[in-house]
Design goal:
By secondary structure, the protein is α+β, with helices and mostly antiparallel strands. Helices cover about 50% and strands about 10% of the residues. α2 crosses α5.
Length: about 230
């Protein structure tokens, strides 16, 4: 193992939100995800412009970083992709796909207030990243696969759970399912039955952001759908 000579007394600093250490770091159980997350937090701060992001092409050109992901060269890009996919599924990064004139690029925004504003502006057609000289590139905001999203945030994916998720996505829509998973994570109620209870409440009472969504999980356990939840 190569030794580290230490940090210099003066040098450029990278700002990392304290929430990363309090909440995000304890959840990350994948070394590629951890490395990619820290790398993107650093790289985004080197960007300039109204909204900052990290380009996939920039990452794959960083040989020093890639070498730290895997000792064998053919393993490095797969490790990078795994880290990026896990970070997107967890919600740390927001992914955008840009395509124009046979050129493609993946962009990653930090999931912060500014990052979400950028995604909203892209979806509304009010702004798109200045990557290509030609106008009107095709831009798609990528959503993580619902199976990856569940496995990353809730627990292991079994064939039965996968089948149930497919049914739920058809019945309630991808957007509802993603948000219900996030509420389950926030309330530390990582069960499919809890997610189902949230979805059913939205269907009967209407889906709207309110204080109810941030209340402890006991509200769902003891409430209208208590007979459907094993906790």
């Amino acid at each position: 193992m190569m030794g580290f000579p230490g940090f210099p007394e003066k040098g450029r600093l990278t700002r990392i939100p304290s929430l990363f250490f309090r909440e995000l770091l304890p959840q990350i159980d994948s070394l590629p995800e951890l490395k990619v997350t820290l790398y993107c937090l650093w790289r985004a701060q080197l960007s300039e412009g109204e909204w900052v992001f990290v380009r996939h092409s920039e990452i794959v050109q960083d040989d020093v970083f890639l070498a730290g992901l895997a000792p064998r060269e053919h393993e490095r890009i797969p490790q990078l992709q795994e880290g990026l996919e896990r970070a997107v599924a967890r919600g740390t990064l927001l992914q955008v796909h840009v395509e124009h004139d046979s050129k493609e690029e993946e962009l990653y925004f930090i999931n912060s207030a500014r990052g979400r504003e950028a995604i909203e502006a892209i979806e509304k057609g009010e702004w798109f990243p200045d990557l290509l000289t030609a106008a009107s590139p095709a831009i798609t905001v990528e959503r993580p696969n619902v199976f990856v999203l569940y496995e990353q945030n809730i627990g292991p994916l079994t064939p039965l759970i996968a089948e149930n998720l497919q049914d739920l996505e058809k019945e309630y829509s991808r957007e509802w399912l993603e948000e219900a998973i996030q509420i389950a994570v926030t309330n530390n109620a990582r069960k499919l039955s809890y997610i189902l209870a949230v979805l059913k409440r939205w269907r009967t009472q209407g889906r709207q952001k309110s204080a109810e969504d941030a209340e402890p999980s006991e509200r769902y356990i003891r409430g209208k759908y208590s007979d459907e939840i094993e906790y």
